[in-house]
Amino acid sequence: MTAFFVQRIVETGRLPMFCFFVAFVTGFVLIRISVRLIRAEVRWWPGNVTPGGLHIHHVVFGVALMLVGGVGRLMISDGAGWAVAVCACVFGLGAALVLDEFALILHLSDVYWTERGRTSVDAVFVAIAMAGLLLLGLRPFGYESLPPGTDPAAAWTSYALMAATVVFNLAMSVVTLLKGKIWTGIVGVFVPGLALVGAVRLAVPSSPWARWRYPAGSRKLARAHRRNLRIRRPLIRLKINLQEFIAGRHLPDPEGWPLRPSALRGGTRAAPRSRRVPPVPPRPDPPAAAPAAPLAAAPTIREAP
After folding, report:
1. What angle in degrees, to the nearest 10, is found between the helix axes of 82-100 and 118-135?
2. pTM
3. How far apart are CA 118 and CA 249, in angstroms?
4. Do residues 90 and 23 lie in contact, with contact meaning Cβ atoms separated by under 8 Å?
5. Percent of the residues in the chain that have a pLDDT greater than 70, as a whole number
6. Cys-Cys crosslink for 120: which of 77, 102, 114, 171, Cβ 3.0 to 4.6 Å?
7. Cα 297 to Cα 294: distance, rounded to the nearest angstrom
8. Residue 236 burial (CB < 10 Å; 0-12/13-18/19+)?
């Protein structure tokens, strides 16, 4: 096992990518365990960081770690060694903390445990997939560097063919993404044949490609809806179940969206922001009653002498 690791990771120069990948996955798992313990209100867990009542999200610590890892790598002149691996670990840990709150950055609101918060889990899964494919040695769009000592005349021909291949694969990946097939398009960046298949097949009914190319009532749109119900919806439900098993259950978005910045703290759901209601005019005071007439003085009765 050690010989395999040295041969496939160290000698190929992929040790920094390996350290980044391991630190990223570890950081995501640890932070999700932490937030789920906070959500469960476990007494022995420290909980949120709230100095002076200010809730500091873990994306702040992630940005700091990414700056430390990135700047530290820029300060190292040697392209290999343990220092580069340490910087890659720090950068990967920070990236996990940042992407775990990607939905917060996107919506500028604390949507961590709502349905919109699933965007963070999607972003983490995409980053893990891309880092894993790079770690396996795959290159985007079929790009491969030429071996040293290549004949200059043959190098120009190879570069021209490579440029045409990259442009074609890039176009197929863009078309696949426009058709609403996110995972197919992302993996197709590294597996060009998959992007071609995604570009040829029908688009997702709600995708931009379907809105542009499939008129209402057309046969293509009807086929796309049938395929979406038969194939894509079960896969999406399976993906959501997997995400909620790993990252926790997300609640439906409350009414009155968007939420206030303090709407969700540690998994506790707060009341949504109420809509503005025009003030009710005060009721007029009832008219004053007329003063009652004074009672007539009773006649004085004198006794007979």
Report:
1. 150
2. 0.71
3. 9
4. yes
5. 76
6. 102
7. 9
8. exposed
